[in-house]
Write a structure and sequence with these properties.
The protein is an alpha+beta fold. Helix content is 37%, strand content 12%. It has five helices and four strands; from the N terminus they run H-H-E-H-E-H-E-E-H. The chain has a four-stranded mixed beta sheet with strand order 2-1-3-4, covered by helices on one side.
């Protein structure tokens, strides 16, 4: 190591220069000085920086969850063919009220109502909720032009179709939405 003051060659483990007597900055003192400068000169230092990074990580994780959200642990009946035409009546369970939920992962109201639908499905033995994704793969917005959206003339989502226990269509669109919200109120689902 060379002394920055007198330019004399000195041993690496020396704390001071034997020629000029100046105290040299070691790696340890440099690290201590760096920590001091961060703490003293910054509003964003120490624990605050760690908390900010943790908060940022939590926001990113939440965003990733919401961006890929397809309901609260539920799968759609058309998961492998999302957005393509499908005959929902072929998926009906006889003997139960079937609520068909047309949704998109890019629809905030769909994401909000999905856990409520899941609670309803678990709470009521006589009701089954069937999820149908209107988005084709690769479309990063609500896919109003998908074959499925055109097949059922879907103009707003969440869009519901309700079939009775015998498999007869009873309600769709706003009428079905009204029935679903009444079921939530009756079952005290929030």
């Amino acid at each position: 190591m060379i002394c920055p003051h007198c330019r004399k060659d000195i041993p690496d483990n020396s704390v001071g220069c034997p020629k000029c007597g100046k105290i040299l900055r070691t790696t340890e003192t440099k690290a201590r000085d760096f920590q001091f400068k961060i703490k003293k000169g910054s509003h964003f230092s120490g624990k605050k920086a760690i908390y900010a990074l943790l908060a940022l990580a939590a926001i990113v994780i939440l965003w990733l969850i919401l961006a890929n959200h397809e309901g609260a642990g539920e799968k759609s009946i058309n998961e492998s063919t999302a957005g393509e035409s499908v005959d929902v009546e072929s998926f009906l369970l006889k003997g139960k009220m079937n609520i068909i939920d047309f949704y998109s992962r890019y629809c905030a109201p769909c994401r909000k109502i999905s856990p409520m639908l899941q609670k309803l499905d678990k709470k009521r033995e006589d009701i089954v909720v069937i999820k149908v994704d209107i988005n084709r793969p690769g479309i990063k917005r609500i896919d109003w032009e998908s074959p499925l959206a055109r097949q059922y003339k879907i103009k707003s989502i969440p869009y519901f179709m309700i079939y009775n226990q015998q498999g007869k269509l009873m309600h769709q669109g706003m009428d079905a939405f009204s029935v679903v919200t009444q079921l939530f109120a009756y079952e005290d689902i929030k």
